[in-house]
């Protein structure tokens, strides 16, 4: 299994994701440049957190024009898994791969905490190893994590079971306590919490590892069928 | 001052222009008569004034700083380079340094604090180390004053803005409040890095013809002569200091970190030296690089990337625009380096070459604008020593204060809500403390702890200083600051291995400030020798005063400890109901400079008694041994607010209670006697623990499931709800 972690200028969780895959999950990963356009040898694309292009203009707004993003769109269209975490989530909404947008937290400040979450949908390639309604804890670290979408979008997110993770004590003002969503097809996940920060016991928890194990499982199942 | 047209050498002499730049008449005459044997032109005089400022030259403090002990057997790099380095085994080194950014942060707290973070990070990665942690030590006036609340909020915003964006976790630090910092807040930032010892980089410019490459942000008119600014005190009537503050760009710095580390780690064969452009900007970095290699440099100022047109040589050289680095690269290999920068989206530019005549030679528009020996800029700086006179205030201290405490429970609640003691979680949650996925203990415990990836090791780190003790007795205060840092490291399970300092003092020409500086250095040195914690780097911030009123002398100690096995990592919170609670160390009636004295008397006075370095050292070693032997569940250092506060803080995380009996009076719950810890121990380890610790510990009670704090004292009983106490503690900052 081979994961690609795309490093944009200003990404700062790219190495963390790399280590989560290689050290904790025990699979292969490459850090690849935002200029790379050949993603053919990868099974999953990871778009890391950080402050791509300094988050100047708007979080994720410049990264969506990076050469790699065209290939990411094609990769997603082929039905293979793509995950955007934190700034990666912001990039995916800016790029139109996921609906909605992420605004400033309602309290204006940056928030860094272990946050209690609930797994709302475990029938995705990213959550199949969790129980439905399972309570988990993952770190959050963001200033712009307040998910917003209009009423119609929210309705369709609900109807299509696209809401995957919800906050149990909404820290940032997100609509419907949303912490993570998938696209309609279910192969593109965006989430504000950081699963890669919760893959080792010594760091305070391993609830994030289950997410990567789920991907592994879904790819194995798919290749068997 | 900044828009002034360039004066002629004669005008500089006759109108004494150099005085505006902080240069004295004597210094100017030394330059003219003994060093150059001619009148310096505008650029030359400006360069010398900047480089001879206290901020760059340490001319008032060097003779004292030489007293610091920096020789430990594990020291790879002592003071002098951008930051010091210590051997931590497995061919790895830890690099760390603390730096102040007090003046800019008072004038413009957001940018001042942000650029303080940026500056210290550059000192670390220019040594070849990947920055792995940040700590911030902040001091403000009382929060009852809205201005101080504003300063704190904006300072914290600035730190978060820079640190979060660049992706270095903030894992520790402390925040203290006292009216002494009312018009002179302190912002000290410490950065820690890790690297392979083979990659340790020195900042030298040697080899005739080698190229000087400039990379990073363009040079603008921001922060011009900030070094001189930092070497002056504030006055209420001076409003023109804003232009001396720089603006930071963490995104640019992130690119610089990645690109420079790539070059240091993969192209060390062609990289001769690398240095950050910090205080006094281009002139400081280039002249110091040349001085260390005993060579000179020719720089063409037309090639320096500039943000604004028509900048004068003086402005280009003394600008403190942020996120700029200077490299010395072997002749013929410039393109390799410039191409790497290009890959990271940065422009590297050759701006000059190393020469062999020892001259600092600058041209602009084809004309020589400066031609003076490097030696004169860097090494010919006069040094000043001042008499060390014990002030009457310290020679004849006021009578010792002994508080009357009729209701120790209520007093405990009150102390827990004092901003200095209260929870800082509302601040810490604004810092990304977990990026890089190495953080084991985030801010809020005695020490911040990160594991070293792919090893069994971890690093504990802390910053500490109680300026009140230093004010009352600088020597003992210095010993105590060092001791508290070491206690915090040990409480986290670390063996202290080295220290850095940030000496925040008033004007050194003021006899009391100078006395405090000299004596606190003596105290720190004594403690560091005994603890085997060499001082490997440091920073001096003088003139911390407004309208002639200095702050309490505040020599911040940053300390790093090595945790050899990550199962020795220890935290301050009690783990299980039923565990036994011990106190290490004896308690006396020590209230001079204490939080309770400040609370009751709104000022501090008296003598610092009962502190003994040998006892401190003995207690700390025993506590460390008890951790290594896996005999303890939690360890918490005692500091502001004394035993009462430490017991409460031990309970808060899991909402436990405490049931105990103390052979003390109510007031003694709040005595700040040093060398003490609160430790919890599982009942089955009682015998082994007591046997190891001997008579330096005493069992005082037990952790209970029921969240109630019950303490039997000789003159009264305490019976308080843990949840009520915790609420006071959590809301103290708001």
Name a few traits of the molecule:
heterodimer, A: 225 residues, alpha/beta, Rossmann fold, nine-stranded mixed sheet, two-stranded antiparallel ribbon, 5 helices, globular, B: 60s Ribosomal Protein L30, Chain: A, 4 domains, seven-stranded mixed sheet, 28 strands, 34% helix, EC 6.3.5.3 (chain B), metal-binding (chain B), purine biosynthesis (chain B), PurL_linker (chain B)
Protein model, in words:
The complex is a heterodimer of chains A (225) and B (734). Chain A has one domain: Rossmann fold (3-Layer(aba) Sandwich), CATH 3.40.50. Chain A has 225 residues and is an alpha/beta fold. Chain A has 5 helices and 11 strands. In chain B, helix 7 (109-125) runs parallel beside helix 10, helix 10 (250-266) crosses helix 13 (334-343) and helix 19 runs parallel beside helix 22 (613-628). By secondary structure, chain B is of the alpha+beta class. Chain B has 4 domains: 8-51, no CATH class; 71-200 and 435-565, PurM-like, N-terminal domain (60s Ribosomal Protein L30, Chain: A, 2-Layer Sandwich), CATH 3.30.1330.10; 202-381, PurM-like C-terminal domain (Phosphoribosyl-aminoimidazole Synthetase, Chain A, domain 2, Alpha-Beta Complex); 391-422 and 572-734, PurM-like C-terminal domain (Phosphoribosyl-aminoimidazole Synthetase, Chain A, domain 2, Alpha-Beta Complex), CATH 3.90.650. Chain B has 25 helices and 28 strands. At the A-B interface, helix 1 and strand 6 of A face helix 8 and helix 10 of B.
Question: How many helices of chain B in DSSP terms?
Answer: 25
**Order of SSEs of chain A:** EHEEHEHEEEEHEEEH
What's the overall average pLDDT of chain B, rounded? 93
CATH architecture of chain A, by name, is: 3-Layer(aba) Sandwich
Strand-residue proportion of chain A: 25-35%
Largest sheet of chain A: 9 strands, mixed
What Rg of chain A is obtained from the alpha carbons, in whole angstroms? 16 Å
At CATH level 3, the topology of chain A is: Rossmann fold
Largest interface: A-B, 32 and 31 residues
**CA(first)-CA(last) distance of chain B:** 41 Å
* Assembly context of the chains: heterodimer
Number of domains of chain B: 4
Radius of gyration of chain B: 26 Å
CATH C-level name of chain A: Alpha Beta
Sheet with the most strands of chain B? 7 strands, mixed
Q: Any idea of the CATH class of the largest domain in chain B?
A: Alpha Beta
Distance between the termini of chain A: 17 Å
Number of strands of chain A: 11
Uncertain stretches of 5 or more adjacent residues of chain A: none
The appropriate CATH architecture of the largest domain in chain B is 2-Layer Sandwich
Q: What class, by secondary structure content of chain B?
A: alpha+beta
EC number (chain B): 6.3.5.3
Catalytic activity (chain B): N(2)-formyl-N(1)-(5-phospho-beta-D-ribosyl)glycinamide + L-glutamine + ATP + H2O = 2-formamido-N(1)-(5-O-phospho-beta-D-ribosyl)acetamidine + L-glutamate + ADP + phosphate + H(+)
Domain Phosphoribosylformylglycinamidine synthase linker (chain B): 12-59
Active site (chain B): 55, 101
